[in-house]
Design goal:
With 132 residues, the protein is mostly helical. The protein folds into 2 domains: 86 residues, no CATH class; 35 residues, no CATH class. Helices cover 50% and strands 0% of the residues. It is built from 5 helices and no strands. The chain starts with a helix and ends in a 6-residue tail after the last helix. The mean pLDDT is 83.
């Protein structure tokens, strides 16, 4: 960095000022990345109130690993879920239409006019009240 700044023809005072600005920006970027990683983890964990859960986390010495994940955060969130489970939403299992089926229950989402006679006969046998 210093070589690049010296190549610009700046004096020492200007170079130091620019280096200070670069360091401040790098610190801000690091803090934003850390904050974003924590918020993403809390959203994925189902935190009802991110601010409240975040206040219970130990983030003073938090660091990101090479994948952008906060080291040790998963363990802290798991411990919080165990001790203060009310702060997290329970994941509900969805019921309803099975992917690949149409809403009227036709096998494979096929249209009636695209079915073979055997498929149509089996469908009508299994669904006697079906309207075609």
């Amino acid at each position: 960095m210093k070589e690049k700044l010296k190549g610009l023809g700046l004096n020492e005072q200007q170079t130091k000022a620019l280096e200070k600005i670069f360091q401040e920006h790098e610190a801000q970027i690091k803090a934003l990345k850390l904050e974003n990683a924590v918020n993403t983890a809390l959203i994925c964990a189902g935190a009802k109130n991110k601010k409240a859960v975040r206040a219970m986390l130990e983030l003073d010495n938090a660091e990101l690993d090479e994948n952008g994940i906060v080291k040790g955060l998963d363990e802290q969130i798991k411990a919080l879920k165990k001790s203060d489970g009310y702060m997290f939403e329970e994941r509900t299992k969805f019921t309803g239409v099975v992917p690949g089926e149409s809403r009227d229950g036709l096998p494979g989402g096929k249209n009636v006019k695209d079915m073979t006679y055997t498929e149509l006969a089996a469908y009508l046998e299994n669904n006697p009240n079906a309207e075609i």
